[in-house]
Amino acid sequence: MPKDDPRKPLELRFEILATEEQAIALQDVVGAAICGADLLHDGPCRIAWSGGVRTELSKKDRKFVWENLGPIDTWPQEAVDESLGIPHEEP
User: Of 12, 6, 59, 56, which Cα lies nearest the Cα of 31?
Assistant: First the structure.
């Protein structure tokens, strides 16, 4: 690491209670917010970053998320999906 670079490795971590499809769409939204541009773009990013969605959590982590996030009032799934740009198939 260059001595004159004031940056240091940091991690932002979010626990969410969502469908896998919503989590992947949310990852794109967060990535675009961090970068300040579309996810696939030419040119520099605002901040160097990487991200991912972890779908397999330990039993302890799953219990923690359900206990802490399960009681929170949320939008209906259809509204969430629409806000994240997830297309719906008509029955």
Answer: 12
Handedness of CA 51, 57, 60, 62 (dihedral sign): positive
Distance CA 75, CA 79 (A): 6
CB 69 within 8 A of CB 16: yes
Distance between the two ends of the chain, CA-based, in angstroms?
55
Q: Which amino acid is at 63?
A: K
pTM of the model: 0.81
> By three-state DSSP, how is residue 29 classified?
helix
Summarised one tens digit per residue, pLDDT across range 34-49 is 888 777 788 888 888 8
pLDDT tens for each residue of 65-91: 999 999 999 999 999 999 999 998 776
Q: HSE (CB half, 13 Å, CA atoms) of 79? A: 3
